[in-house]
Amino acid sequence: MTKIIAELGINHYGSIKICKKMIDQSLNAGCWGIKFQYRNLKRNYIYNKNNSEIGLEIINREVKKNYLKPNIIKKLSNYARNLGLKVGISFFRSEDINDFKNYKFDFYKIPSAESLDIELIYKLLKKKIFLIISLGGLSEKNILFLKKNISKFLKKSNICFMHCISNYPLNPINANIGYINRLKKIFKSNKIGYSSHENNIHNCILSLTKDIDFIERHFTLNKKGNGIDHSSSSDFLEMRDLCFYAKNYKIISNSSSSKNINQGEKINIQNLGKSAISKKKILKGKKINFNHIYFSSPKIGLSKIELKNYLDKKLIADLPANTPITKDFFIKRNISKLVSNSIINKKKISIPIRPHDYEKMNRNFQLKNYEFHLSFNDVNNFNFTKIKKNGFFSKKFFTVHGPDYCSQTEILDIFSKNNKIKKRSIHLINKTINLCKLIKKETNHSPYLIQSFSNDNERSDKYKLYLKIKEFVKRVKSKHGITILPQWLPPIAWYFGGSVKMFLFTEPRDLKFLKKIKLNICMDLSHFLMSCNFFNSKFDLFYKRYSKLFSHYHLSDAQGIDSEGLQLGEGDLLKKNKAIFKKIIDNNKIKVLETWQGHLNDGLIFKNELNKISRFK
Q1: Each residue of 176-226: pLDDT tens digit?
Q2: Which end of the chain is more exposed for a tag (fewer CB within 10 A), N or C?
Q3: Does residue 157 fall inside a structural domain?
Q4: What CA–CA distance (Å, rounded) separates 535 from 515?
């Protein structure tokens, strides 16, 4: 995977506050590391007062304006390291290294202008720390000269040579990206990277096709800022996009002989496709034909092509009018009854229900635990009195999954910068809280409210947002007595049938911060598996380290970064993490089955899953 370095350079105006913000945004964008530039103002050659070159005067002014003292750079470096970033620095004179005599960086950089300063290179190589050498402004003759003079270090030292064109900004047409192939032949034993100075990231993405090790990209908070370097730098959104492609380029580009259907496709095919529906009641033992049916969305039954295979078969059960026609009306499945409801209830296994199907699901399963999964329409139209009258709340324990959307086109976000979305989201979540209070009063048990927290402000500091969520959860608990558990989300959510990159509760390393602020969550195991795959994290390690944060579980299998809601055993949960799965099943927390389409055909898939769980050892 290509690592991205954010060069803070001369875009911070010498401000500690701005530097910290740049470091925070580099982290949130997904960068591997950040880098400073350092020039000692007293000894640096560009402050020769006898030289009146116009270009030099401009650079003098910019360097002075962005100067950071060594002790400030050290403090900022420690700040970045505590966040998990690697920290490097560029030197322009060998004497300047002494200003950091007792401080060790994670890597050093030789800028293009000093790439033939063999004394400077030797001094940094002796530190035996990762060294980057930028090759801007060098002909191949110069590059071969450099290779000859440091040849004794090439196989023993950790060096990266950066292809670079020293224009600021660089016209993309002059980037000569193909020369990277030549550098790989010249420096066979070393890492190769690209130092980019274009005014956008397009050539950086193109350079990923060369399978390089690093990309260095100058970073700024404002591409239109006051200074000579901002226009050839990237802001947060560009840097975030670059990091995304760097991390996922091989996944995106690798060819495959198979094609797995992702969850978003399944949702779209179901919502947009059509299935056969009965026009009238047809009795058991009869055959059907196309005069008996019509086709309508959603596709939860047989398609026209699939139905043709069953026209010569007799129905094995009465087919009610206006009912989706499935293969279960023609083929008897050997599905045993639940092995033992007592085992399922003892293990606190729950299934999701909706206001329109709770009676049917209860008849089929008769469990003690249920979770209401609510859309925004469900919340607005919830008929509590009707459900209460038929005694459904008696001797059961409920949890509530709040809506993901606040309208047909908008994702619920109580911190949105869009006032309409924010107002609508807060109103909806307050109604959901009131519903939980009614359930609490009726059952004498306080239901967890499971809620997804999304955010549309991609420039936000997510750790500050986590603190806001913690404060919101604390306030609701204090005022209403209802515990909200934020749900762990997938790296890519299938909202509205499309793929949306998630910002909060999706990166495993964020669990460290959630532990620090004591924010308990609902752990969706399917989402967590995909997060670990997406961020190259170890599922078992993060689970064992932070399992005390998980007060509630959503349970289904997953594979890769986009195949969620799989049946148990079809993905990585049981195949690779069987021991952890057993601990989860045996713990005292509620586990809600969320297998895709588990509720269809009288809960056929849920029955199979419950049987697996009850027999699991």
Answers
A1: 999 999 999 999 999 999 999 998 999 999 999 999 999 999 999 998 888
A2: C
A3: yes
A4: 19
Dihedral class, residue 481 (left if φ above 0, else alpha if ψ from -120 to 50, else beta): left
The mean pLDDT value for 453-463 works out to 71
411: Cα within 13 Å, side-chain hemisphere? 22
Do 21 and 136 sit in the same domain of this protein? Answer: yes
- Closest of 497, 500, 512, 550 to residue 528, by C-alpha: 550
Residue 295 is part of a domain; what is its CATH number?
Answer: 3.90.1210.10
At 256 the pLDDT is 62
Residues 210 and 69 in one domain: yes
State the pLDDT confidence band at 552, using cuts at 50, 70 and 90.
Answer: very high
Looking at the structure, tell me whether residues 321 and 358 fall in a common domain: no
SS3 of residue 82 by DSSP: helix
Residue 560: the pLDDT is: 84
Nearest to 280 by CA among 314, 319, 315, 326: 319
Looking at the fold, whether 80 and 188 belong to one and the same domain comes out as yes
Q: Find tokens 């089929």 and name the residue.
A: 364
Q: By the 8 A CB rule, do 89 and 109 touch?
A: yes
Q: Which of 67-81, 112-126, 443-457, 465-479 has the lowest mean pLDDT?
A: 443-457
- Residue 320 is part of which domain span? 269-329
Question: What is residue 549's predicted lDDT score, i.e. its pLDDT?
Answer: 97
The Cα–Cα gap between 328 and 142 comes to 75
Block residue for tokens 């670059």: 242
Reference 78, options 143, 135, 22, 20; nearest CA is: 20
pLDDT tens per residue across span 229-265: 888 899 999 999 999 899 888 888 876 656 667 666 7
CA distance 462 to 366: 42
- Give dist(CA 348, CA 346) in Å, integer: 5
Residue 198 corresponds to which amino acid?
Answer: E
> Tokens 């890769």 appear where?
560
Which residue among 329, 363, 379 closes a domain? Answer: 329
Q: Is residue 395 part of a domain?
A: yes
| Distance from C-alpha of 107 to C-alpha of 32, rounded to nearest angstrom | 12
98 & 148 share domain: yes
Asked if residue 408 and residue 309 are part of one domain, the reply reads: no
Task: Give the predicted TM-score (pTM) of the model.
Answer: 0.67
**Could you give the percent of the chain with pLDDT greater than 90?**
61
Query: Does residue 291 sit in the same domain as residue 230?
Result: no
Report the residue count for the chain: 617
> What total number of domains does the chain contain?
3
Letter string b/e over residues 526-549, b meaning 16 or more CB atoms within 10 A of that residue's CB: bbbbbbbbbbeeebeebbeebeeb
Nearest by Cα to 403 from 449, 442, 350:
449
Asked if residue 515 is part of any domain, the answer here is yes
- Between helix 140-149 and helix 179-186 the angle, nearest 10°, is 20
